[in-house]
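JOB MANIFEST
job_type = single_chain_structure
chain_count = 1
residues = 299
[input]
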Amino acid sequence: MKRMSLNKIHLKTALIVPFIVLIVLAVGLVGYLSFYNGQKAVNNVAYQLRSKISKHIESHLHHFLRTPQLINQLNANAMQQGWLDATKPKVLEYHFWQQIRIFKTVTSIYFGNTQGGLVNSGREGASGFQYVIETEDFKRGPFKKFITDNSGNPVDLLVTVQNFDARTRQWYSGAVNKGTNFWSAVYVLFTGNDLAIAASRPVYDKQQSLLGVTSVDIFLSHISNFLKKLSIGKKGSAFILERSGLLIATSTDEKLFTESQKNKQYRRLKATESTTPLIRYAAESILQQFGDYNAQSYG
C-alpha cells in the first residue's frame, strides 16, 4: 500500500513538474518579449520625438537666419534703384526704424557708407525701447544714440561714441571683401547683455560702384527663448553649438559666456563646460564617439 502511494506521488510529480517548467518558461519568454518590445516601442517613440523636435528647431532657425539677409537684399535693391537714397541719413534712419517695427526677430538694421558713416535703428533687447544712431555728417567720427518717440523722432540722448568708422568693422569689411552676403562671427555685446551675430551685404549703384554696406543684427537669446518654450519631457534639454564646440543657445537659463574679473574680457562657453549635466555629457559623448564636431550631423 505504501509502495503504491509513493508511485502515485512520483507519477503526479512527473506529470506536474514539466507543466510547471513549461509555464515558467512561457511566462518568462512572454515577459522578455514584452519587455523587449516595450523597450523598442519606447525607443521608437523617443526617436520620433527627438526627430520632430529637431526638425521644428531646424525650421525655426531657417526662418530666423533667412530674415536678416532678406532685409539686406530688400534694402540693397532699393538703394541701387534709387528708391531709397543712400546719401540721406534721415531718410535711411526712418526707413530702418519702420522695418524694426515690422521684423520682430531682428534687433537692429543699419547702413555704413564709404566714408565710414553710420545710420542705425534698433530695439534695446527683445521687447525694449527703439533707438536710432547716426554719425555726425554721415561720415567717420562720433556717433550718437537716441531713444525715439512713437513717431521715430530722436528725443533722449543715451550715449556718444567717439571715433567710429564703419569701414573698420567686421560686418563692413567682410561683406566688401566677399562681395555678397556675409555673416560675422558670433560676438558678445559690449554691454555684456547678449550674444549677437551680424548679417551684411555690400550695396552698389547701377554702375557697380560701392555705396556702402547694409547690415542686420540679431540677438541669439531669441533662439534660447524659443528652445525654452519647447516641450522636451520633464528633464529634457535642447542646445545648439557651433562646430567649434561653443554654445549658441540652450533651453536652460545658463549664461553662455563669462567675464574675466581681471581684464573685463568676455569668453564664450563651450558645451563641455556647461553647468547643465545633460548638455555637458551629450557634448562629451559626441567627442568620444566622433572625435570632433566637424564631420557629423547630430539630432
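[summary]
The longest strand covers residues 154-164.
Residues 232-299 form one domain.
exit_status = 0
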